[in-house]
Amino acid sequence: MQDLLYFSQQLINGLTIGSTYALIAIGYTMVYGIIGMINFAHGEIYMIGAYTALIAITGLATLGVAWLPLILLVALLCAIIVSSSMGWAVERVAYRPVRGRHRLIPLISAIGMSIFLQNYVHLAQGSRNIGFPALIDGSFRFGSSEGFQLSLSYMQITIFITTLICMIVLSLFISRSRIGRACRAVSQDLGMANLLGIDTNRIISATFIIGAALAAVAGLLLGMYYGSVDPLFGFIAGLKAFTAAVLGGIGSIPGAMLGGLILGVAESMTSGYLSGEYKDVVAFSLLILILLFKPTGLLGKPEVEKI
Amino acid sequence: MIAHNFKHALFCAVVTMVVAYPILGLNLVARGTRVGLEGADTTTLVAIFVAAVVVFAFQLYRDTLMAALGKLPKLNPLAHREPMPQAKRVKMESWILTGIIVLALFWPFFVSRGSVDLATLVLIYVMLALGLNVVVGLAGLLDLGYVAFYAVGAYTFALLSQYMGISFWMALPLGALLAALFGLVLGFPVLRLRGDYLAIVTLGFGEIIRILLNNWTAVTGGPNGIGGIPEPTLFGMEFGRRVKEEGNTSFHETFGIAYSGEHKVIFLYLIALVLAVITALVIRRLMRMPVGRAWEALREDEIAARSLGLSRTAVKLSAFTIGAFFAGFAGTVFASKQGFISPESFVFLESAIILAIVVLGGMGSQLGVVLAAIAVTILPELAREFSDYRMLVFGAAMVLMMVWRPQGLMPMRRAHIELKRQE
């Protein structure tokens, strides 16, 4: 019984982290699906989302607003607006001019952008980590009072529900809306979509904006969950999310969701049963193993190389 | 057209404000356990506003500006000149290089200790950049975990000297070989991967090595690192004031000169110089050997190269291993120069800096990479008050280089014949 409770606890923690990885991973996978580049700066966009949310929350607290739903809504909106603008601007400045060149050139440009954004926030906001107020407190507890107690915090429930809503909205958007249909067309064949009258530049911008918005949501959620942010906070999370995207099959949106959850669970099981210090090693080893044995991921389509 | 431009320009200006204001204009400050918010000073606010106005103006008159720029005469008057004949060019380059080396040999005796120390660091970066240049510039494999091999070299020396008392000269080949072995072992499975996947896997590998060094406290000392790494000796002569090891003599006593701390610094500098020159020469020869040609052939067109019978794995693996070998070299020198190493010195940012050097210098070009290594290491030291902006400028420079001059400042040039396009 105790073991089962402990296992369930790790599972819950893993799914919580995993669902936010999934949110970030969607940004990687959509961009990769359309223009075939790794948006290395995506983790930084997520970090900027977390910072903006924290700034908004602090600002509202200074103004004396105390109604929780309003605070969360405003923080979420601010984070989404700033991150999306950032995503759009990054694509315009660093990626569009190098689109279509040799594979490594956009990647190096993206690494440059990632370093730039990291230091931009570092210079403006300092390098120390800043505490994120725990707005949603409390938890459900299960199990006997003397043994191990399973706890499911309200924060974790919030993360599950928010992620679920985001995923449903995104799926509907991709499958039903005009832009969503155009996105799918562009990811199948960019040149052909262009010939058929789709403004591919706009669609690519839209992809970056959607990815950045989801990353901003993840930024707010994970900021609150971890309780602090710092300028390097996006780098590792970005790598993890990229791992999740590859795990699920890069280019596939359901794959990103699945990959995020699997990676989150694998990580929390490692820290629960082995050691917390090695959870990053597990994530990266997983990445290397997948790329070696099944580069297309779990739900990805094999890529045929044409001469 | 103007109306459309106006809307677009306005949009860009608004985005500039949105992107800049919350992060730059509102600063989070910790007040005890609580977090407060402070508005930035007026200068920042004005700067944000000016930036928005500039973006607005640029976007509004973009077409006119771009047309005007296109009409400007080429800044480079040599752009259309015939490339120098290969033989002459090679001769000139080797003269310049010899001149630089002779100058570098005598230079440390006339300057301060601090500058010699800095120059040693520059040479370490030169070695690293030349090694990475083989992997990225010549073979076209983007390696984002290059610093892992550097760490392997440094830690090999540190651990061997700590546990087995091995000296610098023994550790130098061992560290380099071990790093090369790591390169071989990692490279063997991953080199089948496509370019950008390879980049991420090497990045993951670099992080794994760093995390292991950080957490394997029993052996590596964890975040505390390893100290007391011995300095190199010259034929058994030590450079300290007192002889530390049995059987060694001290440099200043043997030659009957007064003890000076500078001897050691200059000696290390000379070692680094010799090693850097060896690195450059070896790679220079390799570039002209069949294996070097194969690297470039595979970089230019993998399918064509394979159809001509080149083994993809063997060629890539050789580049990867040789690159790792020189990183191990540099790592050993670094450990000996610092006397203390910790995982802090081997973070991803270090890989990014080395990559930036290669990219700025021009992928594949040795002279360019050497000059870029000097510039990237020395400029931040000269402009100390701006040292915070160093990485910011690096990031921006990487993006701008990719956009405007992806071939780098001094691209590699080979005599070649181009097909004339039919008009």
Automatic annotation (TrEMBL), chain A:
Alphabetically ordered keywords of this record: Amino-acid transport, Cell inner membrane, Cell membrane, Membrane, Transmembrane, Transmembrane helix, Transport
A GO cellular-component term linked to this record: plasma membrane
Chief subcellular location: membrane
Keyword Methyltransferase: no
InterPro entries: ABC_transp_permease, BCAA_transport_permease
Subcellular localization, as worded in the UniProt entry: Cell inner membrane
Pfam families, per the entry: BPD_transp_2 (PF02653)
Annotated signal sequence range: none
Single biological process term from Gene Ontology: D-alanine transmembrane transport
Coiled coil: none
Keyword Cell membrane (UniProt): yes
Domain of life: Bacteria
GO-annotated molecular function: L-isoleucine transmembrane transporter activity; L-leucine transmembrane transporter activity; L-phenylalanine transmembrane transporter activity; L-valine transmembrane transporter activity
Membrane topology category: Multi-pass membrane protein
Transmembrane segments: 20-38, 45-64, 70-90, 102-121, 154-174, 203-226
Classification via PANTHER family: BRANCHED-CHAIN AMINO ACID TRANSPORT SYSTEM PERMEASE PROTEIN LIVH, HIGH-AFFINITY BRANCHED-CHAIN AMINO ACID TRANSPORT SYSTEM PERMEASE PROTEIN LIVH
Similarity comment text for this entry: Belongs to the binding-protein-dependent transport system permease family. LivHM subfamily.
Name of the protein in its database record: Branched-chain amino acid transport system permease protein
Gene that this polypeptide is encoded by: livH
TrEMBL record, chain B:
UniProt keyword Transmembrane helix present: yes
Pfam families with a match to the protein in the record: BPD_transp_2, DUF3382
InterPro entries, per database record: ABC_transp_permease (IPR001851), LivHM_N (IPR021807), LivM-like (IPR043428)
Residue runs in coiled coils: none
Primary location recorded for the protein, binned into one broad class: membrane
Keyword Cell membrane: yes
Top-level taxon of origin: Bacteria
CDD domains given in the database record: TM_PBP1_LivM_like
Residue ranges constituting the High-affinity branched-chain amino acid transport system permease LivHM N-terminal domain according to the UniProt record: 5-107
GO molecular function terms attached to this record: branched-chain amino acid transmembrane transporter activity
UniProt membrane topology term: Multi-pass membrane protein
Compartments where found: Cell inner membrane
NCBIfam families: PRK11301.1 (NF008450)
Name of the protein: Branched-chain amino acid transport system permease protein
Gene label: livM
